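pipeline/complex-builder :: batch 7 item 3
reading input block
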Amino acid sequence: MEGGPLLQDWWTAESKNFVLYLNITSKVDTHPDQGMLQKKGGNGFPYVVMMDSGGEVLTTFRPNAATDVQAAAAKANDFVSARDASAKNPKDDDAKARYLMVKLTMKPDEAERKALDVAMKGKVSKATKEKFDGFVAGERIKSWEQGFRTTMRAAKPEEREATQAAEAVKAYEAWKGGMKPPTDDVAWLNYAMICCGGAIKSGDKAGAEGIVTWIETFSVKFPQLKDTVKKMREDIANIGKTETPKEAKEAK
Amino acid sequence: MRITSFALLMLFVAPFLAQEPADMETKYQEKLKKEFISKVPWEMKLDDAMAKAREQKKLIIGYFTRSYAP
């Protein structure tokens, strides 16, 4: 980081929009702000955060490109404006719900999750309801991912491929039932890739193509995805054929 | 067996135990000379960064690094 991105011109230009705070853990007590890393939730180096003017950590990120800084700033600004709006109107359920959703996305908290349900029962706008639906879908995906990991860990090595395929088909069914990524966020990429595999396995060309198109949008930022997308498209093209190229190869 | 384990442990731990405060200070001063630090204006105290952020109505980017080890 220090020998790469932080020496580049985009960083010099982009960083002008922020106040920059440098903390160096030196193990010399007389140096400024020793121990601040732990106070701000860090446990490794480098640790990069976006904070408000009160020193509250709003998000963590890796500044590898200008877009990373911009995305972190957008996230932080969303948090600040939702928090301020809620503080200004404490009785406004809509503002409270929006604030809690942003906050819970950053850090899960059981009591605040319950408070969100209470706020959602109050007077909230259609847009907030839609946002809430997306939030719930995100929660379901995260919970599914947890279950998926547990299932895969429990599977015997010789059963893994079949287990993953079966789980992928189930995930795709859930996708069709509305469990779709609520935002164009890379956090949902793994889930989308598994669902795409499920759609292919289910023989659903249109469904698989729809998911691949969504996945493909990330290949600008992650060029290595292009090969995966290409492979998925080949598999989609083979849907309906009597045997997949892999099966044909195995038959030989 | 115990002696071997102790020797192995010391092999990894000794370089850190050997770091005197003066070494730490030297490493800190060397870190301050790094190009990434001189390239942009950093605040070294969070209180100062917060005051500046309030005044300029900006967010703070906090970069946490270390000087005692590479």
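note: The interface with chain B takes residues 2-3, 6-7, 11-12, 15, 17-28, 31-33, 36-37, 40, 42, 45-55, 57-58, 63, 69, 73, 76-77, 80 of chain A (CB under 8 Å).
queue -> next item
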